[in-house]
Amino acid sequence: MKPVALFVLPKCSHCDSAKAYFKSKKIRYNLIDVTKNKQALKDCQKHGCKGAPVILIGNTWICGFDKQKINKELGIK
Q1: CA-CA distance, 68 to 57, in Å (whole number)?
Q2: How many whole angstroms separate alpha carbon 38 and alpha carbon 32?
Q3: Which residues contact 21 (CB under 8 A, 6 or more apart)?
Q4: Fewer CB within 10 Å, N or C, the chain?
Q5: Beta-carbon neighbour count of residue 34 at 10 Å?
């Protein structure tokens, strides 16, 4: 499976939804709080993402919690 990184903000309901979705699908991911990692925040912004969560699957950046794009990248039906 491709590596998955989840960039989040504290108290973000969409971020919580993404975490719950990954847990329900048993998808392992690296959790990164962009308030504590300024370089990660810059990386997200560089790829055109303005909000949270941001999901990186392999080399593909997904802005926001978009199940359809996540499933496509991970090959989930």
Answers
A1: 13
A2: 10
A3: 65, 67, 70
A4: C
A5: 23
